[in-house]
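User: I'm new to structure prediction. If I give you an amino acid sequence, what do you actually give back? Let's try with this one:
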Amino acid sequence: MFRFLHALVIFFVVVSRCNAQETLIRFHQSAAIMGTTFNLTFYTISQEHATLAANLAFKRIRELNGVFSDYQEDSEISKLSINTGQRTPVSNDLWYLIKLSKKISRQSNGAFDISIGPLTKLWRRAIRQQQFPDSAEIIKAKNLVNYRWIKLYPLKQQVKLKKPAMKLDFGAIAKGYAIDQAYEVLKKQGITRALVDGGGDLFVGDPPPESLIWNIKDHQGKTLMINAQTAVASSGDSYQNLEWNGTRYSHIIDPHSGVGLQNSNVITVIAPKATIADILSSTLSVIEGKRKHKLLRKYKAKIVQ
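Assistant: Good question. You get back a string of structure tokens that encode the predicted 3D arrangement of the chain. For your 305 residues, that looks like this:
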């Protein structure tokens, strides 16, 4: 289930003296990875340290792209899809996200489902060609989607996709995970005053010097005052959609119907981690009522009103 990431505009002031001995300097680095732009904004004491830390963070994001990209034929999830019906050893990163994804799939009654790859492929083509998919194609793709068919073997950290032609899609979780991992790399380099932005989804660490919070503008231009160690993610159909017979269909797909959401709005979620904010911003676009509020409470998240 891939989704639109609405760019958030980040602003703040002041880079000042941390103490009498040293000054923290603001640095900004960008790189095009995972089909979007990752921006690192952080504070450290020298250009040399900033370059080293940024290079390591971007290296980590590229590693994760090699795991989760469904565009790369040699990515780990692409190889797993080829090996349907077989037990396949997987990396720690893939194991972690599959376990988390299955958990949230159960909690959301299948509203979030990483086995949605066949439907994702179908709707990408539909949006690109601005042509509503044939109903038989939707049914065929939908019949390949079921997170319960992803079998885990914990003792050997192996995964089996039970049905031939199953395909995994981590578009609603991988970038959030990459954001969290990039921040962890910066933290290991002693950099905690940092903001990591991946295509509009972001995580903020400790605030800038002489500040208590981060001030962020959301997709509507409203200022959000974000505390340290917090993530923000948005999903919606503002740019990726199909207009057909007077109805707008989103690229966010309901796994139960196999159809893109109709006339959906942008949802912005605040959560403790970007991985969770990323998942919830898409999942909560699909579900309503008590289940939505239960997920928000469970993951200590909230929707920006």
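You can read the tokens as a compact description of the fold. Here is one thing that stands out. Residues 1-21 have pLDDT under 50 and may be disordered.
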